[in-house]
Amino acid sequence: MSDEQQAEAEQVDEEVESGIQDGDFVRLAYTVRTIEDGDVVDTTDKEVAEEAEIDVEGYEFEPRVVIVGAGHVFPEVDEALIGAEAGDEGTVEIPAVDAFGEYDEDEVRTVSANKIDEDDRYPGAQVTIDGDQGRLETIIGGRARVNFNHPLAGEDLEYEYEVLELVDDREEQASGLLGMYLQQAPEVWIQTDEVEEEQVVESDDDEDEDAEPETETVTVEKDTLYIEATPQMTMNQQWMFSKQQIAQDIMQRLDIDRVIVQETIEGGMGGMGGLGGMMGGAGGADIEEAIEDVDIDADELAAELDADEE
């Protein structure tokens, strides 16, 4: 390598090191389209989604926080982000093999119609056969033809992006990760709590190995991420089935000791219209009146409890 080439290589390395690196949190605005037809696959822009006639109800269209190099975006996008700066824009082409795979004719299979629920026996229905998800293409008699390829299999993609900012604040990072996982970002905050916990007391004396270890209660500080759960979040399937994994990922990446999820239920009975009837009409009665209506003899109940203890 000549001196000139070496100097150029060192300059490139210096530029890369000064920009975005693996592990950085960045906020991205992006739109993904198929190259062949220009169909919108995903976007953070609500207007783009509406123009593409994508259902926008219940979906938050806003820039996403991703971690570079963590598999949150396609590998080609990760590579383009390395060395970039806030404000940079770009377009990356994603070949089908790196996107949703090549189209495989063998993944179009004929199965027994008995494996499909009667309500799903129509072309285009999403079905699950022996654990595999697919789309029903045709059904004739007792046989059904199901395509188990991903709907975008064989499609090359165009990923248009803009780096809005690097995200350094841990609360914003946590909110961004939850938004990526759940398609919505609940309210979060981080605080240091003092927590009592049991710890084993180390002893220098030779003791019986079978003896119970001696413990003591100590107060320790723990960085805690609090999440204010919304009704939409508690019903989110991704959260319902993967909340342990999501919490572990956030704790590891943000150096958090624990995660506490809080759910607030507002006062008032306005949203529980039918509950009074379920409770025999006592829902609107005074508590003391309700207790008076309960036919329980206190002395008799105490005698029964004493008899049980004996």
UniProtKB/TrEMBL annotation:
Residues covered by region (Disordered): 1-20, 197-218
UniProt GO molecular function: peptidyl-prolyl cis-trans isomerase activity
Family from the record: Belongs to the FKBP-type PPIase family.
Tagged with keyword Isomerase: yes
Family matches, as InterPro entries: FKBP26_IF, PPIase_dom_sf, PPIase_FKBP_dom, SlpA/SlyD-like_ins_sf
PPIase FKBP-type domain segment(s): 23-114
Signal peptide as annotated in the record: none
Acidic residues: bias regions: 1-17, 197-215
Gene3D superfamilies in the record: 2.40.10.330, 3.10.50.40
Entry keyword set: Isomerase, Rotamase
The protein's Enzyme Commission number: 5.2.1.8
Name of the protein: Peptidyl-prolyl cis-trans isomerase
Catalytically driven reaction(s): [protein]-peptidylproline (omega=180) = [protein]-peptidylproline (omega=0)
Domain of life: Archaea
Annotated organism of origin: Haloferax denitrificans ATCC 35960
Isomerase listed as a keyword: yes
